[in-house]
Amino acid sequence: MAAENIKHAFFCAVITLIIAYPILGLNLIPSGAVVSLEGADGSTIAAIIAAAVVVFLFQLFRDSIMARLGFLSRVNPLSGREPMPQHKRARLESWLLTGIIVLALFWPFFVSRGSVDLATLVLIYIMLALGLNVVVGLAGLLDLGYVAFYAVGAYTFALLSQYTGISFWMSLPIGACLAALFGLVLGFPVLRLRGDYLAIVTLGFGEIIRILLNNWTHLTGGPNGIGGIPEPTLFGMEFGRRIKEEGNTSFHETFGIAYASEHKVIFLYLIALVLAVITALVIRRFMRMPVGRAWEALREDEIAARSLGLSRTAVKLSAFTIGAFFAGFAGTVFASKQGFISPESFVFLESAIILAIVVLGGMGSQIGVILAAIAVTILPELAREFSDYRMLVFGAAMVLMMVWRPQGLLPMRRIHIELKDQG
Amino acid sequence: MLVLENVHTHYGKIEALHGVSVEVKRGEIVSLIGANGAGKTTLLMTVCGNPQACSGRVLLEGRDITREPTAQIMRSGIAIVPEGRRVFSGLTVEENLHMGGFFNTKSEIRESLDHVYHLFPRLKEREQQRAGTMSGGEQQMLAIGRALMSKPRMIILDEPSLGLAPLIIQQIFEIIGQLREEGITVFLVEQNAHQALGLADRGYVLETGRIRLHDTGKNLLNNPEVREAYLGG
């Protein structure tokens, strides 16, 4: 027991040293063309060693310290409380959500342009993650090529606007429907596949789309991408300083206010917000409809679901199609936000990040997925202070998360009652 | 009700059923017994169209269902309790039962829900509990209840006694007897030959993909061959 404790504590201390030294101690010094590595100064090293000692001591005496701290849970007045009744909790949740959405509507008018831009990106990821949540979280089909549908949505808008001059609002449904069609097409060959095999095929599909976009140079511009994608307009009002298209008016002139580049950013943010809310509501509706229950049944047990007369084909295809539809949505917004897209934006890493959001948030849980989308997008920004090590911090956060809460931030809620002991 | 005529079923190149003919008449309990690997489950799966029979015919209430897709067969008044229960472990008891009545209207579901809770009061007590946290016997009850939710005219049970305590098996078989009283036709596939034949009107013995014996349940119980092979002498 004691020997075990010492071994464990020593291990923890060494890990502390290994993690803390490169992050806090090492510095990359660029000098001309070469980058040299500089060690930490004395005080930092002393601090790191002190931290390791603290970790060592804490781990060594953890049992007795935790026993002492045990009474704290009894002091906490909330610990013994009954959980809130179901309907009350649901009502509180819907009020809270309405409040957050209202706040989100007015929030961009008080913050910097950069944060609004970041928030738009967060909303795009929320749409993507909610869509993938249908496929992975609800229907249990591991899709590693989800970014393909995102690319289809983005490229549909980019190409349509380039070749036919169709506006954002027309492209939005077209892009989403085309992405849904691709989802349907991908669905057919993978109907009989499950688990690993499905993952590999979808991964291949994602790569095929990316490579196709990269090589079909005369249509997609290949690696050069497509630029000059127009911003969305508000009832024919443009947000640029000068009007690009005939027949349109400009926003600032119509309302007689001074031109500000923020207007455009805020408008895009609001569009993304509205679309994200629509996505969440529509998928929420689906989850409560029979098709939602069919997805879950298929995830839980395919044979049992089929024995009840559910058609595997219809259930899987509907999940793929609906998931892809919202990726197309997100893709259109993304193309419009960036103004320029290239196959670079649709690499496998994107699929992996979206999947990570779904897993971190808790498979099947909408609120969890939304929170995770916010965390995953903003965390790397916040971690900028760690400069070169921010991806390391990000990775460590993910690993820790999976160790401590493998079910995700807010796992899908199911009603369940815990029996109090009768003794 | 259900007729199999000279059915052959293949798994790839291997033939698992070599011309099996079985008939289940309306209102009967028919038991199919056989050793491991005899093809009992294959026979059931063939009825469900997964895999489909490669020759011979399967008739359900006079309709040829040999080539119909599984989903369609399972929606035409027949329900199966799959081997090993296969309840949706993450869903609650109530949600599991709702899944059983997936293609029925709300009022039909409410009606069959009452009926199932009447048959299995234990499920009513566990209504909001996740199915995966229940005991094997309770899960078996849930699996049967789920199958009954679609108001089937015929129910197929694949090894309902698998891995259960004798007392629970007794209960399950009592319920199966009760289903017959309600006019539901039962096709029972079992390794537990003693119980299955005791309850059945008629029985079939399947051996390596062929029907070896066919008689009333009582006669089979007394048949020296069956006693020797399946009832431990």
Would you summarize the structure shown here?
Chain A is mainly α and 423 residues long. Chain A contains 18 helices and four strands.
Can you name the CATH architecture of the domain at 1-77 and 185-232 in chain B?
Answer: 3-Layer(aba) Sandwich
Fraction in helix of chain B: 25-40%
Specify the number of helices of chain A: 18
CATH class of the domain at 1-77 and 185-232 in chain B: Alpha Beta
Report the span from N to C terminus of chain B. Answer: 34 Å
CATH topology of the largest domain in chain A: ABC transporter involved in vitamin B12 uptake, BtuC
Order of helices and strands of chain B: EEEHEEHEHHHHEHEHEEHH
Tell me about the largest β-sheet of chain B: 6 strands, mixed
Counted beta strands of chain A: 4
Which second-level CATH architecture of the largest domain in chain A applies?
Orthogonal Bundle
Shape of chain A: globular
Strand percent estimate of chain B: 25-35%
Protein name (chain A): L-leucine ABC transporter membrane protein /L-isoleucine ABC transporter membrane protein /L-valine ABC transporter membrane protein
Pfam families (chain A): BPD_transp_2, DUF3382
Membrane topology (chain A): Multi-pass membrane protein
Domain High-affinity branched-chain amino acid transport system permease LivHM N-terminal (chain A): 5-107
Structure explained in plain terms:
The complex is a heterodimer of chains A (423) and B (233). Chain A is globular, with a radius of gyration of 25 Å. Mean pLDDT of chain A is 83; it is low at 415-423. With 423 residues, chain A is mainly alpha-helical. Chain A has helices at 2-25, 42-60, 62-69, 71-75, 86-106, 113-138, 147-163, 168-187, 195-215, 217-220, 251-254, 262-288, 290-300, 302-307, 312-338, 348-361, 366-382, 390-404, and strands spanning 27-31, 34-38, 237-238, 249-250. In chain A, helix 7 (147-163) crosses helix 15 and helix 13 crosses helix 15. Chain A has 18 helices and four strands. Chain A has two domains: 2-75, no CATH class; 92-404, ABC transporter involved in vitamin B12 uptake, BtuC. In chain A, a hairpin with a 2-residue loop joins strand 1 and strand 2 (34-38). Chain B is of the alpha/beta class and 233 residues long. Chain B has helices at residues 40-47, 70-74, 93-100, 106-119, 121-125, 136-148, 166-181, 193-199, 217-222, 224-230, and strands at 2-11, 14-24, 29-34, 55-60, 63-64, 78-81, 154-158, 185-190, 202-207, 210-216. In chain B, the strands form two sheets. A six-stranded mixed beta sheet of chain B has the order 6-7-8-3-9-10, sandwiched between helices. In chain B, strand 4 and strand 5 form a beta hairpin. In chain B, helix 3 runs parallel beside helix 6 (136-148). The longest helix of chain B has 16 residues, at 166-181. Chain B is globular and about 45 Å long. The A-B interface holds A 290, 293-294, 296-297, 300-301, 303-312, 314, 414-417 and B 48, 50, 69-75, 79-80, 82, 86-92, 95, 98-100, 102-103, 128-130, 146-147, 150.
